[in-house]
Amino acid sequence: MTEDVQHSVRPATAVDADRLTRTLAAAFADDPLFCHLLPPGVRRREQRLRRAFAIDAARSLSLGGLWTTADGEAAAVWFPPGSWRPTPRQDLAELPAWLRVGGRRMRAFQQVRAAQYAHHRDLPPHWYLLYLGTRPGRRSEGLGGALLRAVLDRCDAERLPAYLESTCERNVPLYRRHGFVAHDSLDIPGGCPPMTPMWRDPR
User: Fold this and answer.
1) Does pTM surpass 0.85?
2) Cβ neighbours of residue 134 closer than 8 Å, sequence gap 6 or more
3) CB neighbourhood size of 83 (10 A)
4) What's the pLDDT band for 24 if we cut at 50, 70, 90?
5) Which residues pair with 68 in a beta bridge?
6) Which residue from 25, 66, 174, 175 has the highest number of Cβ atoms inside 10 Å of its Cβ?
């Protein structure tokens, strides 16, 4: 099947949240970044992955940025302009959950977020795509493209750019087809795989 297949997508609701965190955990289980953050074989890895996505998905949902396909097999976690970083109060509230996720790997999580935050500070206002994931058995069916188009159409209507960091080389062509342009990789200390920042001007 091709990416041009039409799929029904919609903003997620609180009812969708648990399923979507499971979908994202499955989608990113073999992702280079998450294999670094929580290496295969680490204790309670699947549960910890779900918790990590649940934290960010909850904040995205509160801002109207969490999207799902009709069947819940793919999800996108977006943040509107000016809201990509948690407030100090949100950071404090989320810290116990992040400590449960990271455990002894917490320093690796902190290094990734610090690099992302430092890079974001220099960017003009934009919609930020933190995660886009499809369950492994449903990849290459156009689900990710449909989720992208839903928010990118809004970006174009509102004349706003969009930004993401691709954590997996296989996803870069999809983003390029939707108008994103790759920039120099974002190198993170501690042996973390590089991420590819990608920017899209409105059309």
Assistant:
1) yes
2) 23, 27, 73, 74, 141, 143, 144
3) 18
4) very high
5) 10, 75
6) 66
